[in-house]
Amino acid sequence: MRDRVILHDNIDAMEADFSGMTFATEAQVDEFYDEADRRMEATGKRWYFLVIYTDCVVVPEVWDRFAARGKNTNIKYGLGTVRVGTSAGTRDTIRQRAQRDMFRANIYESRDSAILALGEMRKRHETLGATAGAPAAGSEGIVRVDDIHLNFGGVKAIAGVGFGVNRGEISSIIGPNGAGKSSMLNVISGFYRPSRGRIYFEGRDRTHLAAHDVARLGFARTFQNIALFKGMSTLDNIMTGRSLKIKGNFLTDALYWGFAQKEETAQRQHVEKIIDFLEIQAIRKTPVGKLPYGLQKRVELARALAMEPKVLLLDEPMAGMNVEEKEDMVRFILDVNDQWGTTIILIEHDMGVVMDISHYVVVMDHGGKIAEGTPGEVKADPVVIRAYLGAH
Amino acid sequence: MLYREAGQFKTTYAGDQQVFPIRQDRIGVAVVLVVAFVVVPLIGNQYWLSAILTPFLIFALATLGLNILTGYAGQLSLGTAAFMAVGAFMAFNFELRAPWMPILVSFALAGLCAAAVGVAFGLPSLRIKGFYLAVATLACQFFVLWALQRIGWFTNHSASGVITAQKVVILGYAFDTPATKYMLTLGIVTVLAVLAKNMLRSETGRKFMAVRDMDLAAEVIGIRMMQTKLLAFAISSFYCGVAGALYAFTYLGTVEPEAFTLDLSFRILFMVIVGGVGSILGSFLGAAFITLLPIFLNTMAHPIEELLGVTLPAGLMSNLELIVFGALIIFFLIVEPHGLARLWQIGKEKLRLWPFPH
Amino acid sequence: MNWQFFLEVLVGGLLAGVMYSLVALGFVLIYKASGVFNFAQGAMVFLAALTFVSLLERGVNFWLAIAIALAVMVVLGIAIERLVLRPLVNQPQITLFMATIGLSFVLEGLSQLVWGSQPHGLEIGIPDVPMQWLADTLGINVSQFDVFAAVVAGILVAALAVFFQTTRIGRALRAVADDHQAALAVGIPLRQIWAIVWTVAGFVALVAGIMWGARNGVQYALTFIALKALPVLILGGFESVAGAIVGGLIVGASEKLAEVYLGPYVGGGLESWFPYVLALAFLLVRPEGLFGEKRIERV
Fold first, then answer.
1. Is A130 near chain B, with CB under 8 Å?
2. All domains of chain A, ordered by start, with CATH?
3. Cβ–Cβ of A236/B216 closer than 8 Å?
4. Pairwise CA distance, residues A229 & A245, whole Å
5. What is the span of the domain harbouring residue B29?
6. Which residue of B has its CA nearest to A216?
7. DSSP letters along C183-232, please?
8. Does domain C9-285 have CATH number 1.10.3470?
9. In whole angstroms, what is the distance from residue C228 CA to residue A380 CA?
10. How many domains does chain B have?
11. B184 by DSSP, 3-state: which?
């Protein structure tokens, strides 16, 4: 067993090489995991897991044991898992289990792409400065929705959808029109109350919170049909994003000079940083109603960023933009994720963008979830292809 | 040429956030204040002070109050006169039952009572919008007026229903001439206008405007709808209440329900529309316009009579007033929905370029 | 409790409510067809009644006077469409509402400018006396006039309902009420439709004006009846003809009953605010009214 467990010190990864192995008895499962546990215990630190499933056979009777030991090891020593498994059967089994037990399958085609993904995961965790720990290994995530059902009168907008989003990642929800994506986003942002199901934030149930309390938790969002305050300037719109952070009340406002003025100036400084970041200095005093569509979307993003959110929900941020505007927007989104480690949930139709920037993709159709996984997995999934292109 | 910003840079955010960033504006405002506080009381005649300027200031204050609620926070209200009535009656009662209290404090407390009524009748705004809300405020208008008339405590069980307002005496000094009443009103209105401007250009104002423009988006940002809407009602009603108290104490001299009918509510709404929704300057402009219009029409009557050689019937002027008011409303709504304030702004922008065309 | 008295008050209230419904009908018509809440409806009632009664006083034949008054309302309708509605196409509802407030002032001033401001009495031949056989059989007093008004309102409502449901113009009106631009897109002649609607509303205003004028005299206070129609509309829903009737009945009955039974405890005068507070309470529970349509806001 020794040579099946390889510790790569330089990338803090434990490679579990199951290739060609057969697990037929629980004893065999335990033998492997005991070895792995012992080795990692001796180092006294946590590891990323790189699991090679090529030509590996796990007999159905021992799958539960296999999964339970794996989860156990993950909780004790894990930082994040990537898997390599080229057999279709194995892939399917893992995915099914991932859906049922709510963890990330994270399956990659080759060892190299898996290691690349591992590297990105590390970088993300570094940006966040946290050790992340077992929960970030994919079983809980910063946001999790469980079995969400949403009805409007007789119309079922969402029927039993659940998935998790990891801290610091960009996750996309894609699907044909009318799939329920915006509704899902509305549920996550607290706009709609699901008729059934739960929403968890950082492990705690927040299903029944109202929209403004959800904002307080650290959620910000943009809307499909821009929801800017048309009567105010760009600067004022972004300043409204500081509503939760700004101190004072109407009395201190009325006696402006002194406390309120200091607050205004301090908040203004913060807002100006965002204005610089999104390159909208020239339009700060313009009433937003006069701005072209692309700029309005940027201002809406600025307003969302002003809230210093932990989770940013973007509803079709690139809709109606030309190529240059899209590139700008992609650059901003990536910068936000890179520099501030903000978790991003994105609804977008541009497949190129989605596949390029997402760490994880959830595919919806007719109110249900039809697939999920890394961009590579989803792109190759026949169910997804059929949903988008029709029966042929 | 004169009205140029060239050379006036702002190097601090505080400087950029000034109310009057352009120096010429600051000079202009200073001039207006000097004229208002110093020149007018010295040279103004009785008639102008007591019948035109004082009511103008009072209406401007009420218009400001309504503008806060309808213009900035987007909650349509037809109950302005009722809030003014509460202010007037409560000021009377405070003066009557607690004569040791300074009258300014009575005014302030009366304003607070109006604010309380405002919050009570503003509660429906949490569920209803637009002209449904207007109908709810109508309920307020009728109910409050009825209550003030029927419940004897308010009128101190006066037999005639018309009560005389007490004299305004502050620190021994009696404000009983047109000039002193004007100064008192001017002082109070100026202070409240400054406070309003401060509130509306900071977070409070932004919250109001957010709720007005798109309340659902405001919620998502974390703005609490209930508190914001009720605060708007409270502040607005406070202003209207103080205006009502001033109306009774420095203008009418009496406290009577008939002065605060639905008609007055509409008048103030017209001042908001004509002056400019969502603008403090507009409140003053609108109040001035509507206050001066009947006087203008009346003074026109004489030359027209002479010109045409006829004596115009008595009711003609008042009917003409109605027609002109209504036509003006429609005109402004069609041509410049943002009222005189916007016209003023456009004028200023043209002035920046003058004498060049662009 | 004296049941006969209660019945009398109730029936009296219901019949008064029918009169409110007559005015509310005009509102509903215009709102249904143009989405505009016509605050000037009361002023239109006033103008129609004043024109009619002034013509009568100048010796014009009854039916001719009606025809002329109707013609005036038609002209008015066209003028309103041209001068007020057309420039304000696609403005938010609130703007149109405020424009109709302005319009009401213009009409009030105009009416009195042309015809003078004195109150006029109006006789249409139905006396305001109790119906004899009801008094004899059930011992209650119900005014003949009120019953006549109820019958007239009933006929009017039936005619309008048929008009809206079955005729092509009726359908077009409903389309216009839903979405101006969409209606234009399918080729509905918006301007003509609006002119027609405001004319029909003018006719309804004339009938209401005659009824109210005969009851209370034609005077400036007539314009305030329109305000009473607002609670009727809230209870019944702004878009429903049936709602206007039901709402009117509820308002009329509750107003009278409240005045008679609760009034003595609070010094009277309940009529001035009771329907509004009732409407307010209703709004909190069911904002779209009994017969109105629920509006869903999409994000």
1. no
2. 2-137 (3.30.750.24), 143-389 (3.40.50.300)
3. no
4. 19
5. 21-259
6. B222
7. HHHTT--HHHHHHHHHHHHHHHHHHHHHHHHHHH-BSTTHHHHHHHHHHH
8. yes
9. 67
10. 1
11. helix
Q: How far apart are CA B265 and CA B141, in angstroms?
A: 9
Q: CA-CA distance, B179 to B177, in Å (whole number)?
A: 5
Interface of A with B in 237-256 (CB under 8 A): 239-241, 243-244, 246, 248-250, 253-256
What is the value of pTM for the model shown?
0.83
Residue A219, pLDDT score: 92
pLDDT of residue B233: 95
In angstroms, how far is CA B39 from the centroid of its own chain? Answer: 23
Of B14, B221, B224, the CB nearest to A240: B221
Q: Side-chain half-sphere of C74: how many Cα atoms within 13 Å?
A: 8
Amino acid at B60: A
Regarding predicted confidence, which is higher, B185 or C201? B185
Among A22-36, B277-291, C182-196, name the one with the lowest average pLDDT: C182-196
Are B213 and A260 a contacting pair at CB < 8 A? no
Q: Does B297 touch chain C (CB under 8 A)?
A: no
Residue from A192, A212, A257 whose CB has the most chain B CBs within 10 Å, to mutate: A212
Instruction: Pick from B127-141, B187-201, C276-290 the range whose average pLDDT is largest.
Output: B187-201
Task: Name the token pair of B118.
Answer: 């405002």
B28 shares contact with chain C (CB less than 8 Å): no
Token readout for A163 is 């998935």
CA distance A22 to chain C (A): 54
Distance from CA of B324 to the nearest CA of A (A): 30
- According to the model, what pLDDT value does residue B109 have? 94
Give the integer Cα–Cα distance in Å for B78 and B121.
11
B-facing residues of C in 63-102 (CB < 8 A) are: 83-84, 87-88, 91, 93-95, 97-99, 101-102
DSSP annotation of A231 reads T
* Residue pair A288/A299 in contact by the 8 Å Cβ criterion: yes
C267 CB within 8 Å of a chain B CB: yes
Average pLDDT on A8-24 reads 86
C92 neighbourhood in chain A, CB within 8 Å: none
In a domain, B318, yes or no: no
Longest C-alpha distance within chain B, in Å?
67
B223 within some domain: yes
In a domain, residue B196? The reply is yes
Using the beta-carbon criterion (under 8 Å), do C117 and B328 form an inter-chain contact?
no
Q: Exposure string (b/e) for A366-390, b if CB count within 10 Å is 16 or more? A: ebebbbbbbbebbeebeebeebeee
Q: Note the Cα C50 to chain centre separation in Å.
A: 16
Q: Which residues pair with A172 in a beta bridge?
A: A346, A361
By 3-state DSSP, what share of chain C in percent is helix, strand and coil, each rounded to 5? 75, 0, 20
pLDDT score of B200: 92
DSSP 8-class letter at C143:
B
Which of B135, B145, B216 is facing C279, going by the closest CB pair? Answer: B135
Bridge partners (DSSP) of residue A219 are: A311
Q: Is C106 close to B320, i.e. CB distance below 8 A?
A: no
ipTM for this prediction: 0.83
Does C276 sit within 8 Å of B134, measured CB to CB? no
Q: What three-state secondary structure class fits A176?
A: coil
Contact (CB<8Å) B326/C234: no
User: Across the strands, what pairs with A312?
Assistant: A220, A344
Q: Closest Cα to residue B328, out of B271, B253, B260?
A: B271
The reported pLDDT for the residue numbered B342 is: 84
- Judge whether B188 lies within some domain: yes
Strands (E), chain B: 163-164, 169-170, 173-174, 254-255
B contacts of C103 (beta carbons < 8 Å) = 326, 330
pLDDT at A112 over 80: yes
